[in-house]
Design brief:
Blueprint lengths: L1 H34 L9 E3 L1 H15 L6 E7 L1 H5 L2 E3 L1 H17 L4 E11 L6 E9 L29 H11 L3 E6 L15 E8 L6
Parallel strand pairs: 2-4
Antiparallel strand pairs: 1-3, 4-5, 5-7, 6-7
Helix pairs in contact: 1-2, 1-4, 2-4, 4-5
Length: 213
């Protein structure tokens, strides 16, 4: 009934707020650990890519609940959904939520899409999982690219945030044996190259299995 639906929506709103707070707290803790020389170590387990994507999508829906101008969406590659992935569940969700939060801040209209796909790492030739968040915001000035994933670096016009989110994503992706990056959608062949939709795609890739020591 309507009352039950309202309770469910309220619960999801609280869940989204808590998740956002956890992401911020974890980014600060990770920075402090790194600054003091502590080594971050992921807790590895067999994980479900579907669960991570769906959890991030629920948070995205709540973050966009007050606007009618931006549509949330997600796409999950069936090959990745079936694949055995050994990684850190908490780290992957934290990384994906950082990208989601970043997209929400810079997208006033259009769509934000979470995408997870099976791929081959161009650096190692090994199977990997690629997690992406694509938005239809204003994109990123290429001149900002070299410092984009540095600590306390913020995109132009970013009035909120700590400047730690993207640095945390990059650092954790590297520790998991992968990497992170971004591309402007207008330069993406999937969108037809120049003249494509505005916005950009931030992503990270991690191996399906931990790299050998």
């Amino acid at each position: 009934d309507e009352a039950e639906q309202q309770r469910a929506e309220a619960f999801e709103a609280v869940r989204a707020s808590v998740a956002a707070m956890v992401v911020l707290r974890q980014a600060m803790l990770d920075y402090v650990k790194k600054a003091t020389g502590a080594v971050l170590k992921p807790s590895l387990e067999v994980i479900s890519a579907s669960e991570i994507v769906h959890s991030a999508y629920l948070v995205l829906k709540q973050l966009l609940a007050r606007t009618q101008n931006v549509r949330p969406r997600y796409v999950l590659d069936p090959r990745l959904a079936r694949a055995r992935v050994v990684s850190s569940k908490s780290w992957l969700l934290d990384m994906l939520l950082n990208l989601v939060s970043n997209a929400v801040k810079f997208t006033a209209a259009g769509e934000i899409c979470i995408r997870a796909r099976y791929a081959t790492d161009p650096a190692t030739g090994r199977p990997c999982a690629v997690f992406e968040v694509r938005d239809t915001g204003r994109g990123v000035d290429p001149r900002a690219a070299p410092r984009l994933f540095g600590h306390f670096q913020q995109l132009q016009g970013d009035a909120g945030g700590t400047g730690l989110g993207l640095a945390s994503v990059k650092h954790k992706a590297t520790l998991l044996g992968g990497d992170a990056g971004f591309r402007n959608n207008a330069d993406d062949p999937d969108f037809g190259g120049d003249g494509g939709p505005s916005g950009c795609t931030f992503f990270f890739r991690v191996p399906l299995e931990p790299p050998p020591p």
